[in-house]
Design a protein that fits this description.
Elements: H1 4-35, H2 41-72, H3 77-106, H4 113-135, H5 141-168
Length: 169
């Protein structure tokens, strides 16, 4: 037979959960309203500065660990995969400031830090893929050109898809 206090505890739990649900719905409504507002210039500059600090840390850690890996290990399976991961990290950190400079120079508006990070990640994907193809001795000029062209086309389509969304808000 259920204890009488179990029903009271259950009612209290239901009351607390319904209150939290109402607060969550209100907060989501406020956030949805905020999502329609365009971030200001100061917010975008602060976001880009944070991305640049992260780039410096990624490049520093990536190159330091890459140097340690190359000078102390034999090229077996695990160190080889670790080489690609660290090369990706170091190349992303290196390409990010260049992507930031190019976006500041050639775009009419400040792009979000996520776009700059995505572009530098595409550059580092190219570097890692080229290193992998060179390890297997299959990298040549045509392969490198078409790989770069495909990544440029992907980024161009992504930027075209983002542009109307930036103009609407």
């Amino acid at each position: 037979m259920p204890h009488p206090s179990d029903s009271a505890n259950l009612d209290a739990i239901v009351l607390v959960l319904s209150t939290e649900l109402k607060l969550t719905v209100k907060a989501c409504g406020r956030l949805a309203g905020m999502a329609n507002t365009r971030p200001g210039r100061r917010h975008r500059i602060a976001e880009q500065n944070g991305v640049l600090v992260a780039a410096a840390m990624m490049a520093g850690v990536g190159y330091a660990l890459l140097y340690q890996l190359v000078t102390t290990t034999n090229p077996l399976a695990f160190p080889r995969w670790l080489f690609f991961i660290l090369l990706y990290l170091a190349a992303t950190g290196t390409a990010l400031p260049f992507a930031w400079i190019l976006n500041r120079r050639f775009t009419q508006y400040l792009v979000p830090g996520a776009v700059i990070l995505r572009e530098s990640m595409l550059v580092s994907l190219y570097v890692v893929t080229a290193a992998w193809l060179q390890m297997t001795r299959t990298l040549n000029t045509a392969t490198g050109f078409f790989l770069a062209l495909s990544l440029i086309v992907i980024e161009a389509f992504l930027r075209l898809r983002e542009r109307p969304r930036d103009d609407e808000s």
